[in-house]
Structure formats: C-alpha cells, structure tokens
Amino acid sequence: MPSEDPRTEIDARYSTEGAAAIPWDRAVDVLATAELFWISTVRPDARPHVTPLPAVWRDGALHFATGPDERKARNLRANPEVVLTTGTNLWDKGFDLVVEGTAVRVTDEDRLRALATAWEDKYGSFWHYDVRDGCFHHGAGHAHVFAVAPRTAFGFGKGEPFSQTRYRFG
C-alpha cells in the first residue's frame, strides 16, 4: 500500500487558468466518505465491464467485495487491473476521483475482520460480514475482498475553478 503522499500536479490543459492542484488529503476525504463507486474491469475477451459497488478506504487502498462467480471477479482472474471512480453527476459542482491500480485479493483474516468492521461502520448493519476461510460471509453467500492501492489517481474539480489534478504513487 502507498506509504507516502503522491507526487501531485495540476494539468493546465484541462484546468481553469490559475487553478491549483487539489491536495491528496482532500482526495482521501472523498474516497473515505463516498458511498458509491463504479468499478471498471476488462472481460477475458477484452470488452469492458462497469458496475457500481460500495467500497471502503483503509490503509492507503480502496477495498471492495464481490462474489467469486460475479462478472467482475471472473474478469479479475484474467486481468487484475481496475479503475474505480466516484464523484457527483454534476458538471459544474463537486470533485470527482478516478483511481487506477491492481486489485489484490485480501485473505488475511485479521485484516478482513478490520475491514468487515469498517464496512459496517460506514454502511450500517445491512453490510455486516462474518469472516472465515479468507472471505466475507453474509447470509448464505460469501465474497472475496480486494484491495486497490492507487498507482495513479485523477481529481477533477468542477465549477470555477475547474481543475484536473494527477496523483502519482511510487
């Protein structure tokens, strides 16, 4: 997981003149509080797949869960590269984020228990998970948990001033 702040730069080509880069700590606040993310994966035949899901920011990574037979899980077995996006559906207000990285399965049960607590703290008791056998369990089903540490992220400030900030890790 990234342990240091990223290199942050404004892209003047897509920003209002004089706009400043949005600090990474503001981006982290958005990642930590956003309720919904859109995940983009690639099918084995190279077609894209996008679907909404909840995610939790913890220890420098976004975490999401998926059933092992769901489309995104099958895609990740062939290609673990993903993009997660969040923000608002308004063009002139808000701050959108795009996080690019590699989805890595989390199986350590202590870490999964901490993530299960984080899920329930963020989303409420409907999202209560038990942990066993390296998975989240909810009712009769189980889910694999993945972590995506940002490799590159983009922040889009909307409204005056408009801005595009790039965050590069590593």
TrEMBL record:
UniProt protein name: Pyridoxamine 5'-phosphate oxidase
GO molecular function, one term: coenzyme F420 binding
Presence of the UniProt keyword Iron in the record: no
A cellular component term, taken from the record's GO annotations: cytosol
The Pyridoxamine 5'-phosphate oxidase N-terminal domain, residue ranges: 25-125
InterPro entries, per the entry: F420H2_bilvrd_red/Heme_oxyg, Pyridox_Oxase_N, Split_barrel_FMN-bd
Keywords linked to the UniProt accession: Oxidoreductase
Species: Streptomyces silvensis
